[in-house]
Specification:
elongated, two-stranded antiparallel ribbon, Ribosomal Protein L22, Chain A, 5 helices, alpha+beta, 139 residues, single chain
Length: 139
C-alpha cells in the first residue's frame, strides 16, 4: 500500500550559491557525515554539487511523501541517501523521522522506500515513494 509519493527538483547553480555562502555550516545542517565523506571523494566540484543536489532533492521528496515537510516530522540528518551493492540509491531513515514513518504504517506492515535520482548540468531531481509492505511471518 502506498503511504505517499514525493518529488523535488533542485537548481544546481542555486544550490552552489547556498553552499558558497554558508559553506560547512549548511553541509552539516543538511547532510550526514557519511554523505559528506562520499561527496568529498568526488574528483571535481561539479560532481560534488550534483551529488549534494540529488540528495537534497531526495530529502525534500521524502518529506513531501510523508506529507509533513522538513522540520515537523522529518529532519535533514535523519534521512540519508546511500547506495546498495549495485550502486542503486537507497534511503536510510533514523530517529524521530523513522518514528513518524512508523506511525503512518498499519500494524503488520513495515516501511519500504523507493527512490529515483537524476541530474543534468543545471538540475537535480528525485522521486520518493513510501510503501507499507506486509511483515513476513515464519509460519
Amino acid at each position: 500500500m502506498i503511504i505517499g509519493i514525493g518529488t523535488d527538483i533542485v537548481s544546481v547553480s542555486r544550490f552552489k550559491r547556498e553552499i558558497e555562502q554558508f559553506n560547512q555550516a549548511v553541509l552539516n545542517r543538511l547532510f550526514t557525515s557519511c554523505e559528506q565523506e562520499k561527496a568529498n571523494r568526488k574528483k571535481c566540484e561539479m560532481a560534488q554539487l550534483g551529488f549534494y543536489a540529488k540528495r537534497f532533492a531526495a530529502k525534500e521528496a521524502f518529506s513531501k511523501a510523508l506529507g509533513s515537510g522538513i522540520g515537523k516530522a522529518a529532519l535533514w540528518t535523519e534521512i540519508e541517501v546511500d547506495n546498495d551493492d549495485k550502486g542503486a540509491p537507497i534511503l536510510k531513515v533514523f530517529g524521530k523521522t523513522m518514528n513518524y514513518v512508523l506511525s503512518l504504517i498499519p500494524q503488520g506492515y513495515k516501511p519500504y522506500f523507493h527512490i529515483s535520482l537524476a541530474d543534468e548540468k543545471l538540475f537535480a531531481i528525485a522521486v520518493v515513494i513510501i510503501e507499507a509492505i506486509p511483515v513476513e511471518t515464519d509460519n
